[in-house]
Specification:
With 687 residues, the chain is of the alpha/beta class. The protein has 2 domains: 6-339, no CATH class; 401-684, Rossmann fold (3-Layer(aba) Sandwich), CATH 3.40.50. 58% of the residues lie in helices and 9% in strands. The protein has 28 helices and 17 strands. A 7-stranded mixed sheet has the order 4-6-5-7-17-8-10, sandwiched between helices. The chain has a 3-stranded antiparallel sheet with strand order 1-2-3. Helix 1 (6-24) crosses helix 13 and helix 1 (6-24) packs parallel to helix 14.
C-alpha cells in the first residue's frame, strides 16, 4: 500500500477553497470553478493507484471496491441530503419545492449531472441556486468509477499483464475524451460542462499517473516541476475564463495538478512543503464534507433572504458555518464509516467500527444506504406531486388561466416537432396563423392593411395583446414566430447547425411572406435583443431591416425589453407559504427588482436600439418599463395577478396588462393615410 501523501490533501484544500470562494463571490476568484477539475485529477490518481496495487497483489474484487466507494461517498452525502430536505421544507416556497423534489431524486441516484445538463447553465447569473447543484460533480465521478475498474482489469488481462499497454490505451481514451470535450464546448456547452464523456479525460489523466508514473530525476528539476504546476493551478483559479470551458480551457489546471502530483512525492521540495502545511492538510481532510455543505447553505440563504448576491458579512458567516459542519461531518460521519475492522459480504455488507473495549457496533452500511436513498426518492415523489393540496397559493396560481405562456392559437404558430408551421402550405398557414378582426369592432378597418407579428419566443409571449389590439381596430393580423430566432434580415444566428438552419429557413419564410403579401402594412418584430446586441453585425442588420421595411412602405416601431428577474417571479406570490416564515410569525418581503438593476442590465441594448431608431425615418420606440416599473421598482404582480410566466417571459395576464398601454404608440399606426400605414413593431421582451 502506498504511503500517505499529505501534500495531496493540501492540494485538495486548494481545490475546495477555490470552489467555496467562487460560490461565495465569483469576483474574488474568477476561475475558482476549476477546483472541481483539480478534484477530478486527484481522484483519478488516488483511486486508480489503489486499483492497480490490488490488481498487482491479486486481492482486487469489484465487491470490495464498490463497497469502499459506498463507505467513502454515501454516508456524508445521505446525511447532507436528509438535513437539506429538512431545511428546504422550512425555507423553500411550494413552487421551489417542486423543483427541489426533482433534483433530489437525481442527486440520490447519482445522476444529477444528467438533469442539470438539460436545464441549468452553471455560469448563468447567480448560478441556478438549486441547493443540490453541486452534486453534479459527484455524479460524474461515480459514473466514471462504474466503468473504470472493469476497464483497467480487462485491459490488464488482455495485454498480458503489461501496465505500459494499459497506460497507452488510457492515453488514447483521455485524448478522445479531451477532443469530445473541446467539440462539445462549441456544439453544446451544457453537455460539455456536465457530461461524463466530456469530463472523463480529467479523471483519466490522474489515473494514467498511477499506472505509468513519470520519473522526474534531480532536485532542481522537481523544484521547477512543482513551481510550474502550482503556477498553472494558481493562474487558472485567478484568471481562467468560463468561456470555452472545459475543453482545452481545462487543460492548464489539470496539467498543473498532474505536475504537482509528480513533483510532490518528494517532501523536500518547496511546493511540497507548502502543501504539507498542517492547517492546509486539515482543510484537505475535510474537503469532501466542506464541498457537500457549503453550497446548500449558500443557496438556501439566498432563497430565504431573497438576495441574489452575498455581502462580505454574510459570506464570512456562511464560510464559518460550512467549516464547522464539515468538521463535524468528517469526524462523526466520514471517519467512522471509513475506519473499519471487518468487511464481509453475506447478502449485505457488514461494517464493524472500532469502539471502546467490549463494545461492538455493527453498521449495516449497504442496507442503511439503500434505505436512505429509498426514503429520499419517496420524499422527492411526494414533493413533486401535481400540486393538489401543496398550498392554496400555488394551487390558486395553477388554476389562474392567465398564468399560461400563451393561448393554444398562438402556440400553434410556432415550430411543432420537426416541421415548423411556416413550412406548411399557404392555405394551411392562413388558417392557423391569420387572425380576423372582431366583427363587433367599432374601429374603422385600415384600407388594405394587415398586421404581421414575427420574432422569437417573445413574439409568442407578447402576441395575444398585440393581436387583440389590432383585432379591436378591424385589422387582420398574422403571427409567425420561432423560438431563438431574431427577426432580422441577413443576421447570422443559432448556436449549432440545426438552429442555424432553422433560423435561416424562418427568416426566408418571413421575407417571402412580406414580398408576396403587399396587404401587410403593420409588421411586429419581437426578440430578446440583449442577447444579440453585442454580436457582430447586429447593428447593421437591425438598421438594414428597418430600412428595407420602410422602403417597402412599412414604418418601424421598436418596443423595449421587459425586465428580467434573477428568480422565478411566481415565488413572490407564494412566499407567504414558507413554513419557517409562518413558524416565526414574520412575513417574508417580496423579491423586488430595482429599476436601477434593470437599467444596468438592459441599458446598453436600449441605448443602441433607440439610437438606431432615432436615425431612421418612420421608426418608433415603445418602452414597457414605463408600465412595468414604478417608484424605482419593477413588479411581477399587478392588481393581484402574476404578470410573468418565468424570469423573462410574460404570461397572458402580463401581455394583457401591457396591452392596455399600446395606444400610446400604436394609435398613430391607423391614424394616417393607407399609404403611410406601414409599421414594424420590434418587441424587445426577454427570451
Amino acid at each position: 500500500m502506498s504511503a500517505y501523501r499529505p501534500d495531496i490533501d493540501g492540494l485538495r484544500a486548494v481545490a475546495v477553497l477555490s470552489v467555496v470562494l467562487y460560490h461565495l463571490d465569483p469576483h474574488w476568484v474568477p476561475g475558482g470553478f476549476v477546483g472541481v477539475d483539480v478534484f477530478f485529477v486527484i481522484s483519478g490518481f488516488l483511486i486508480t493507484r489503489l486499483v492497480v496495487e490490488e490488481v498487482d497483489a491479486g486481492s482486487f474484487t469489484f465487491v470490495h471496491f464498490y463497497i469502499r466507494r459506498i463507505r467513502r461517498i454515501f454516508p456524508a452525502l445521505l446525511v447532507m441530503l436528509c438535513l437539506v430536505v429538512a431545511a428546504a421544507l422550512l425555507i423553500l416556497t411550494p413552487m421551489e419545492m417542486d423543483e427541489f423534489g426533482r433534483t433530489l431524486r437525481y442527486a440520490s441516484a447519482q445522476a444529477s449531472n444528467i438533469l442539470f445538463q438539460r436545464q441549468v447553465p452553471y455560469f448563468s447569473d447567480g448560478f441556478d441556486n438549486s441547493p443540490l447543484l453541486h452534486t453534479w460533480s459527484l455524479a460524474v465521478e461515480e459514473q466514471f468509477y462504474l466503468i473504470w475498474p472493469p476497464l483497467i482489469l480487462g485491459l490488464y488481462k488482455l495485454s498480458g499483464k503489461r501496465w505500459r499497454v494499459v497506460a497507452l490505451v488510457m492515453a488514447l481514451i483521455v485524448a478522445a475524451s479531451l477532443g469530445t470535450s473541446e467539440y462539445l464546448v462549441g456544439a453544446s456547452p451544457q453537455l460539455a460542462f456536465y457530461s461524463l464523456p466530456s469530463r472523463l479525460w480529467e479523471i483519466g489523466l490522474g489515473g494514467m499517473l498511477s499506472v505509468q508514473a513519470l520519473d522526474v530525476k534531480g532536485r532542481a528539476v522537481k523544484e521547477l516541476t512543482g513551481i510550474v504546476g502550482l503556477a498553472a493551478v494558481g493562474f487558472s483559479v485567478l484568471a481562467v475564463s468560463s468561456e470555452s470551458f472545459p475543453g482545452l480551457g481545462a487543460a492548464i489546471p489539470c496539467a498543473g495538478v498532474a505536475l504537482l502530483i509528480v513533483a510532490g512525492s518528494d517532501s523536500r521540495i518547496l511546493v511540497s512543503r507548502l502543501l504539507r502545511f498542517r492547517y492546509l492538510v486539515f482543510i484537505g481532510l475535510i474537503s469532501y464534507s466542506l464541498y457537500l455543505w457549503h453550497w446548500p447553505i449558500i443557496a438556501l440563504f439566498k432563497r430565504f433572504m431573497a438576495e441574489p448576491e452575498l455581502g462580505p458579512t454574510a459570506g464570512a458567516a456562511i464560510f464559518m458555518v460550512s467549516m464547522i459542519l464539515a468538521t463535524l461531518s468528517w469526524k462523526y460521519v466520514e471517519r467512522p464509516f471509513r475506519r473499519t475492522r471487518k468487511l464481509s459480504w453475506e447478502g449485505y455488507a457488514i461494517v464493524s467500527l472500532p469502539g471502546r473495549p467490549g463494545e461492538a457496533r455493527v453498521y449495516h452500511a449497504v442496507f442503511a444506504g439503500m434505505s436512505g436513498v429509498v426514503m429520499l426518492v419517496s420524499a422527492a415523489v411526494w414533493l413533486q406531486r401535481d400540486g393538489e393540496g401543496i398550498s392554496r397559493a400555488i394551487t390558486g396560481l395553477r388554476e389562474d388561466p392567465g398564468m399560461i405562456y400563451a393561448p393554444p392559437e398562438v402556440i400553434d404558430c410556432e415550430e411543432k416537432g420537426d416541421r415548423p408551421r411556416y413550412l406548411e402550405s399557404e392555405q394551411e398557414m392562413r388558417r392557423r396563423c391569420r387572425f380576423e378582426p372582431r366583427a363587433e369592432s367599432g374601429h374603422p378597418a385600415a384600407v388594405g392593411g394587415e398586421a404581421l407579428v414575427i420574432g422569437d419566443s417573445h413574439a409568442g409571449h407578447y402576441a395575444k395583446g398585440l393581436l387583440e389590439w389590432f383585432s379591436a381596430r378591424g385589422v387582420p393580423a398574422r403571427l409567425l414566430w420561432e423560438s431563438g430566432c431574431v427577426p432580422l434580415f441577413d443576421f447570422p444566428q443559432g448556436d449549432d447547425a440545426r438552429e442555424k438552419e432553422l433560423c435561416a429557413r424562418y427568416i426566408h419564410a418571413v421575407r417571402q411572406l412580406l414580398g408576396e403579401e403587399r396587404r401587410i402594412k403593420y409588421v411586429v418584430l419581437a426578440a430578446r435583443w440583449d442577447a444579440h446586441v453585442d454580436a457582430e453585425g447586429f447593428r447593421e442588420s437591425l438598421k438594414s431591416t428597418i430600412r428595407v421595411l420602410a422602403a417597402s412602405g412599412r414604418q418601424v416601431v421598436v418596443m423595449g425589453q421587459i425586465p428580467k428577474f434573477p428568480f422565478h417571479p411566481a415565488n413572490n406570490f407564494v412566499r407567504g407559504d414558507v413554513l419557517l416564515s409562518r413558524m416565526l410569525g414574520v412575513g417574508l418581503r417580496p423579491q423586488d427588482l430595482a429599476l436601477s438593476d434593470v437599467e444596468s442590465d438592459l441599458g446598453r441594448q436600449r441605448a443602441v436600439i433607440k439610437g438606431l431608431i432615432a436615425g431612421s425615418d418612420g421608426a418608433q420606440y415603445f418602452d414597457p418599463l414605463k408600465y412595468l416599473c414604478r417608484n424605482g421598482e419593477c413588479d411581477s404582480v399587478r392588481d393581484g395577478k402574476m404578470l410573468y410566466y418565468d424570469q423573462d417571459h410574460l404570461n397572458i395576464n402580463g401581455t394583457e396588462y401591457v396591452g392596455r398601454f399600446l395606444d400610446d404608440t400604436f394609435s398613430r399606426l391607423v391614424a394616417g393615410p393607407a399609404g403611410n400605414m406601414a409599421s414594424v413593431l420590434v418587441t424587445e421582451l426577454g427570451e
